[in-house]
Write a structure and sequence with these properties.
Length: 689
């Protein structure tokens, strides 16, 4: 960097020497005789070939000048083009009268169509890094003796600056239609017009004197404002040139009416930012030896806010981001709106989107993040509160350990790993939600205010894939939902689909709500198919046992539910029901197998739901436990095969249903639980609560 400044100064000094000599002996001056010397001195200092390819001409007057048509500086051998810098025309004028006082002043410096390429190679090296030969070191050591001229005016016309990274594909382009720097006090005023990534911009502000910048010493101040049609950026600070590397310290303010406006400015070909706004940023940004440090960071994005500290380390092979952030409100609705509106990304008939996840970010960068959020807006009417997140990404592997939040008066705890190194990427998650108020969820979503109840949710799952749909279709592990007492308003039940409404109608008291005593749904997941291990629910009029599966890959459901009436007069209505079809639009109706086969489908279930129904009614040992959980444990102790006749099976259940439910739900001592299979550990955890 400093050698480049010295080269520019040396070229100007040599040209000035030519001008002085030419002014004294104009008739005998041959500019071509100086071409080789200029090229050689530049190449010696730079370590790259410099060519003056065009004509050289001299103009005389009180401000003598030289014009050179064609200047080229060679690129590295791995560069994407032969030249790093080309200039179509180079013009310089000096103040002749100032030479009488021993001062060197450049009155005007003009660059016509400069084209500068800055690129990072496959090994992370920059083409602006020049080697240090012995001759170059000697030339660089003479910098202190080189007089840095005072430049009063600089004009650039039709200039282009390109920055690109061969490894990442990042490409940034600045086109300068016009740019001018004019002396203003101790510094320079700046004005520029052009485009960045094809987006027109204007810039104005002040800089320190160019002589200070080219001298490569001390503090170089800047105060700039850049505006586009949709954005504005202000930078005020200084470059610090006192060390080996140039650093900076600046206050940065930026705003735009939509984040989508920054998509083109990012230079990342696959990045598409959502249409969220307004967006603003304010921070102190310090360039360090290893990267950048952001302090006093304040970000606004739509209804979201973010504050804290962050660092960006670019000194290694992989970029690393470290951040400690807080937010009063984090609005995720704009990021999920597309999925919600289509129902599945590019396929509107899907529950799980098939849009690729941004795994490439994990492969390209490491991160350490802590985040605390007061309110997370998940949808228009549904929020989470008190979110706490700790995340760590290393070499393509992301760990969440943990993510905690309050959700509908419940407590959610999620630990997960996402490994983008695998092909396809692998996901592992452990989710625990305690006392989720599903009645509040329905009220918040403005679906119904006639539901009350809470559930516990437990999941331990692994999956693979590039998209949410692929991951869902490969899940393995276990899932359990356990519900305690609840209430469903009759008015709500009347609004359900015909099949479900007709199913429930015969089990409802005429003018009463449906009261739920308990419910358990436990599934084992295998290659994206949720196989029922236990399905059991109990109301004031009927108990339900069920079995079946949910195919997440095909997004289809096939469940059979057997009702058991608690009144003898209703037993003839206890016809098995089948719930089947697409997840988005399942049908509910009588089981085609008929009532005669009501018990056949339970063979092979991990827990016989009909035996569990019997245990639910004839036992009275579960006073302090969820009765459905205890009934499942009781059924497991009695065997898991086909329902048996007798006092503990379906026959006994039918005989004793009407008279023993009250005893089952309100009777004596606690029952035992089975700790046999790993699937049942979910139930054991529930009982331990």
């Amino acid at each position: 960097m400093k050698r480049l400044k010295w080269i520019a100064g040396s070229l100007v000094v040599l040209i000035v020497a030519v001008l002085v000599a030419g002014y004294v002996a104009l008739a005998s001056l041959d500019l071509e005789s100086y071409r080789g010397e200029l090229e050689q001195r530049a190449e010696t200092a730079l370590g790259r070939e410099l060519k003056l390819t065009g004509a050289m001409s001299l103009s005389m007057g009180l401000s003598p000048g030289v014009q050179i048509d064609g200047v080229e500086i060679a690129n590295t051998d791995w560069g994407s083009r032969p030249q790093m810098v080309t200039v179509e025309r180079f013009e310089v004028e000096i103040g002749l009268l100032t030479l009488l006082t021993g001062e060197l002043q450049i009155r005007r410096l003009v660059l016509i169509e400069p084209d500068i390429l800055l690129e990072v190679g496959p090994d992370g090296q920059g083409n602006w890094a020049f080697g240090e030969t012995g001759a170059q070191q000697d030339a660089a050591s003479s910098q202190e003796a080189t007089q840095v001229p005072d430049i009063a005016s600089v004009r650039i016309e039709d200039g282009t600056v390109r920055y690109q990274e061969q490894r990442t594909g990042l490409q940034l382009t600045w086109n300068l239609a016009t740019a001018s720097l004019e002396t203003a006090g101790d510094g320079l005023s700046v004005r520029a017009e052009g485009s960045y990534q094809s987006v027109p911009f204007q810039a104005d502000g002040t800089l320190g004197a160019l002589s200070t910048l080219m001298a490569g010493k001390g503090r170089y101040p800047f105060d700039l404002k850049v505006t586009t049609e949709d954005a504005e950026i202000a930078l005020a600070g200084a470059l610090d040139q006192s060390g080996q590397d140039v650093t900076s310290d600046a206050e940065v303010q930026a705003r735009t009416n939509s984040l989508a406006n920054l998509t083109a400015l990012s230079g990342l070909p696959d990045l598409e930012l959502p249409d969220i706004g307004p967006a603003s940023l304010q921070s102190r940004v310090r360039k360090t030896d290893s990267g950048y440090r952001l302090s006093g960071l304040n970000v606004g994005l739509g209804e979201s806010d973010l504050a804290g500290e962050a660092t960006l380390d670019v000194s290694g092979d992989r970029m690393r981001v470290t951040a400690d952030l807080t937010s009063s409100t984090l609005d995720l609705r704009p990021f999920t709106a597309g999925v919600e509106s289509t129902g599945g990304g590019s396929n509107p008939d899907r529950v799980f989107p098939d849009t690729p996840l941004p795994f490439d970010l994990l492969r390209r960068a490491d991160a350490d993040l802590t985040l605390k959020v007061g309110v997370v807006k998940l949808s228009n009417d549904f929020d989470a509160q008190e979110l706490r997140l700790s995340a760590r990404a290393r070499d393509g592997r992301l760990e969440l350990a943990p993510l905690q939040a309050k959700l509908a008066d419940g407590a959610a705890d999620l630990s997960a790993t996402l490994d983008a190194r695998a092909s396809p990427p692998e996901l592992s998650l452990d989710l625990d939600i305690a006392k989720l108020d599903y009645g509040r969820v329905l009220r918040d979503l403005k679906i119904s205010d006639g539901v009350d109840g809470k559930v516990d949710v437990r999941a331990d799952l692994t999956g693979r894939g590039e998209t949410p749909h692929a991951i869902a279709g490969s899940l393995n592990g276990g899932l359990e939902i356990v519900g305690d007492k609840g209430r469903f308003d009759n008015a709500l039940l009347d609004t359900t689909g015909a099949g479900l409404r007709d199913l429930l109608a015969v089990w409802r008291e005429q003018d009463q709500d449906m009261n739920l005593n308990c419910a358990v749904a436990r599934f084992g997941a295998e290659d994206g198919v949720l196989n029922s291990r236990a399905l059991l629910a109990d109301t004031q009029s009927v108990s339900f046992g069920g079995t079946g599966d949910i195919d997440l890959g095909e997004e289809r459901i096939d469940l059979r539910v057997t009702p058991k009436a608690k009144q003898t007069s209703l037993m003839s209505l206890a016809v098995p029901v089948r719930v089947s079809g697409p997840l988005l639009d399942p049908s509910v109706g009588p089981d085609p197998l008929g009532a005669a086969k009501a018990t056949a489908f339970v063979v092979g279930a991990a827990v016989n739901p009909l035996a569990a129904l019997g245990a639910l009614v004839v036992s009275s040992e579960f006073q302090d436990e969820n009765p459905c959980v205890a009934a499942l444990a009781k059924a497991r102790q009695g065997g898991t095969g086909e329902a048996e006749e007798g006092n503990g099976g379906v026959g006994g259940f039918l005989e004793n249903m009407g008279e023993s439910l009250d005893d089952a739900l309100g009777g004596g001592a606690n029952g035992d639980t089975d700790s046999g299979s790993d699937g049942n550990r979910f139930l054991n955890r529930q009982n331990d609560r």
